[in-house]
Design brief:
The complex is a heterotrimer of chains A (199), B (284) and C (262).
Chain A: H1 2-7, H2 10-13, H3 15-32, H4 42-51, H5 53-70, H6 79-94, H7 101-125, H8 136-147, H9 150-177, H10 182-185
Chain B: E1 4-15, E2 23-31, E3 35-40, H1 46-53, H2 56-59, E4 63-71, E5 74-75, H3 81-84, E6 88-91, H4 106-116, H5 121-134, H6 150-162, E7 168-172, H7 180-195, E8 199-203, H8 207-213, E9 216-221, E10 224-229, H9 231-235, H10 249-259, H11 271-283
Parallel strand pairs in B: 3-8, 3-9, 6-7, 7-8
Antiparallel strand pairs in B: 1-2, 1-4, 4-5, 9-10
Chain C: H1 13-16, H2 19-35, H3 40-55, H4 59-84, E1 91-94, E2 99-101, H5 102-127, H6 131-140, H7 145-174, H8 183-214, H9 236-258
Antiparallel strand pairs in C: 1-2
Helix pairs in contact in C: 2-5, 2-9, 3-4, 3-5, 4-5, 6-7, 7-8
Classes of the chains: A mainly alpha (199), B alpha/beta (284), C mainly alpha (262).
């Protein structure tokens, strides 16, 4: 518990609103550019790298609460997904799996799997298979007609989307982390170990 | 001069992972009720010093710290920022980063710090009205703070700090991003606050202003306190320019007049003194 | 997607109620619908919510959101669960390529009404409550100030970021950067723009954290007060009692039905 509490400093907490904003900007950008993606976890993954797993989990929760307040409460159950992704990524980063490109790829894959499984379980158990809020639901329906296995269908559509989506998200976060000024970065506990001290 | 309200003793600070000390064995005292100015080139450690005075260092920004700071008897290292905020308040450069972003109106913004102390609604209302008058923002109390001008927001920020009744106000280049009129308004208010007995510590680049307002001036260079004294003793110091600080133009004018034999008065450092000197020189 | 808490004061009795009463309504009505074994109760609650939306003068928005979400998901779920649910035993229609089962249809309807009750109740709370009012009410209940900060600051900061982003977008378009073209081109034109916005925002937030700290954000053990006072109405108390009783009665009925007594 002590370690968890250590992460909840004001300077970590204030990053949450901006990370939520980054999550939403990614999503807006996708609909603006008509990209068939979400890119709605850039902020959560970034904050997992800066402030650790628990702050990232809260960031995921707040993002979904925000969407519920201003857009559509349908997103609320999916907060579990963002929270799990934040937690998993935060713990991976903490154990050093963001130090090099290849380690980041592994974290990305683990995050993708976490996302896919948890999102599918929610779509399946909460919404009975469809949320009606995006195009993939129709694809899911077509897959169901073809395979007649609801859970499997939900899983496989989700996996494909997620792999591409998280790949781009992680690439963006990885490049951002190398551009953040050192003075700023050194104030956050998780990320600092991986870059050697400058002179 | 009264007794010391703030004491910085052998204070050094190094940010996490940095090699060089931002502040290097700094020593000085500030007298109660005085108007104290800190000057120095960019990167000399002025902002770090201000952050240390209010406890943001070491409680918000982490790093290696040596020595100590006492604010009206409180040890900064041992007191929380919240406890310190009853004694000392900080206003810094960017007005829009000094809003709480939890308030829909200026009145709510002013109330934010009071709410964190559990001040009851009735007292809150009285304090807000009083502060709005002092800061000349009573006409915008019900407006959204993010929609105001930079100068107005900076007065809201000053009000939000001063409403907590601190005995010391630290102003870290708080007018740098404002237009001249907005800056002047802030300084008029600050002067008034200082007149009511509040100690004021100001970091500023405008040396003419420092010369006319300051009781005492501290010069920082490379993280070290290289000079401290009255504005006259600091600005007439021939070594000043090597610390990256240019004295007010009036100092150059006096030197010129003296060199050419037009005057033998002591160096003028403010506008008024300079005008007086030029007048006499013209007569003679 | 529009992102603002577009609360418009309409001076109705629903607005004057304490936000916590509305939150209790979401919980009580939502959970009742969720646990009750068939969709009939949820349907009743939905009609009740519609009546409330008329009193709150937001029936248009209410219908738009509830139907806009309700119709597509009903169709989709009837298709998925009605035709392919493994629980299907009683066949009620034969579509040729698949058969529609009663169990799947009922399950689909149950999910739909439950979601709609939560959605509708939440919508009513959201559209009739100013967000500062909600946070003030939650603070009265003992909500930690850090949680209140997160909700309020997010609602304030996000529109700002969006504004910053759209300024950049417009200037990019003015400079003739393509927003059309292939997928890769579109990504290449916009992803680099994210960087500066994100970096400057991060540094701004660190400074805003300084502001919070110097205003006593971290003070512990103080019961916080707010400038905005939560609205209260004489209806709050009786309504709270009714809502809790309703949930209890539904719970008892459900248990009785489960054990076959009713």
């Amino acid at each position: 518990m002590g370690i968890i509490k250590d992460q909840f400093t004001t300077k970590s907490l204030v990053l949450i609103p901006i990370a939520v904003g980054i999550n939403l900007i990614g999503g807006t950008l996708c609909s603006l550019l008509k990209l068939p993606l979400f890119l709605d976890m850039i902020g959560t993954i970034l904050i997992a790298c800066l402030s650790g797993p628990w702050i990232a989990a809260i960031c995921g929760l707040v993002t979904n609460i925000f969407l519920a307040l201003v857009a559509n409460p349908v997103y609320l159950p999916y907060s579990v997904v963002s929270m799990l992704c934040g937690l998993v990524t935060g713990f991976m980063v903490r154990s050093g799996f963001f130090e090099s490109k290849w380690k980041a790829v592994i974290t990305c894959l683990v995050c993708t799997v976490t996302n896919t499984i948890s999102a599918s379980l929610i779509t399946f158990f909460v919404y009975g298979g469809a949320t009606g809020i995006n195009g993939t639901s129709f694809f899911t329906a077509a897959m169901i007609a073809a395979t007649k296995e609801i859970l499997f269908s939900v899983l496989s559509t989700s996996m494909l989307e997620n792999l591409i989506d998280k790949g781009i998200v992680f690439a963006i976060v990885y490049s951002l982390m190398s551009k953040i000024p050192r003075r700023f970065l050194s104030q956050y506990s998780v990320s600092i170990r991986k870059r050697p001290a400058e002179t | 001069m009264g007794k010391t309200i703030l004491e910085v003793k052998d204070f050094s600070f190094t940010y996490n992972q940095a090699i060089n000390k931002v502040l290097d064995h700094v020593n000085f005292r500030v007298d109660r009720g005085s108007f104290f100015c800190i000057i120095g080139a960019n990167g000399s450690g002025k902002s770090t010093l201000c952050n240390s005075l209010v406890g943001l260092i070491p409680h918000y920004f982490s790093g290696e710290m040596e020595g100590g700071i006492r604010v009206d008897g409180m040890d900064v290292r041992k007191s929380s920022i919240g406890e310190l905020s009853q004694k000392i308040g900080l206003v810094f450069q960017n007005p829009f980063n000094q809003l709480s972003y939890t308030a829909g109106t200026v009145a709510e913004e002013l109330a934010y710090g009071l709410g964190n102390r559990g001040v009851p609604g009735k007292v809150m209302q009285e304090k807000i009205e009083h502060m709005a008058q002092l800061m000349r923002i009573d006409d915008v109390l019900s407006k959204n703070p993010t929609e105001l001008s930079g100068g107005q927001v900076q007065r809201v920020a000053l009000g939000s700090v001063f409403i907590l009744d601190p005995e010391i106000l630290v102003l870290d280049e708080c007018t740098t991003q404002l237009d001249p009129l907005g800056a002047e308004e802030i300084f008029e208010i600050v002067k008034k606050i200082n007149g009511s007995g509040v100690t004021v510590i100001v970091v500023d680049h405008d040396m003419e202003r420092v010369a006319s307002y300051a009781d005492e001036v501290l010069v920082l260079s490379g993280g070290r306190a290289v000079k401290i004294g009255s504005p006259r003793s600091v600005f007439t110091d021939p070594e000043l320019e090597q610390y990256g600080v240019n004295p007010p133009e009036y100092v150059k004018i006096s030197d010129m007049l003296r060199k050419k034999g037009y005057t033998n008065r002591e160096t003028a450092i403010t506008e008024d003194q300079s005008i007086q000197m030029v007048k006499e020189a013209l007569k003679g | 997607m529009e992102m603002s808490n577009d609360f418009v004061p309409k001076n109705t009795i629903i607005e004057k109620m304490n936000p916590n009463t509305k939150l209790l309504a979401i919980i009580s009505l939502g959970i009742s619908t969720l646990i009750f074994p068939n969709p009939a109760l949820g349907l009743g609650v939905l009609i009740f919510l519609f009546v409330v939306s008329c009193i709150a003068k937001i029936q248009k928005t209410f219908l738009k959101v509830v139907l806009g979400f309700g119709i597509p998901i009903t169709v989709m779920l009837l298709f998925i669960q009605g035709l392919y649910s493994p629980k299907n035993k009683t066949i009620i229609a034969d579509l040729g390529f698949a058969q529609m089962g009663l169990e799947g249809v009922l399950y689909a309807l149950k999910i739909v009404v439950t979601l709609l009750v939560f959605l509708g109740a939440f919508l009513l709370m959201n559209k009739t409550t100013h967000i500062s009012n909600l946070v003030a009410a939650l603070t009265d209940l003992g909500l930690p100030n850090k949680a209140g900060y997160l909700v309020l600051a997010t609602l304030n900061v996000v529109p700002q970021m969006q504004k910053r982003m759209s300024v950049i977008r417009q200037s990019q378009e003015a400079r003739g950067v393509e927003t059309q073209g292939g997928l890769f081109n579109r990504i290449k034109a916009y992803i680099p723009l994210l960087g500066p916005v994100i970096l400057s925002s991060l540094i701004d937030m660190q400074e805003r954290g300084m502001t919070l700290e110097t205003r006593g954000f971290g003070i512990n053990g103080v019961r916080r007060t707010t400038y905005v006072k939560a609205t209260r109405s004489p209806m709050d108390k009786p309504l709270n009692v009714i809502l809790i009783l309703f949930l209890l009665i539904v719970l008892i009925l459900t248990l009785l039905m489960k054990f076959g007594i009713l």
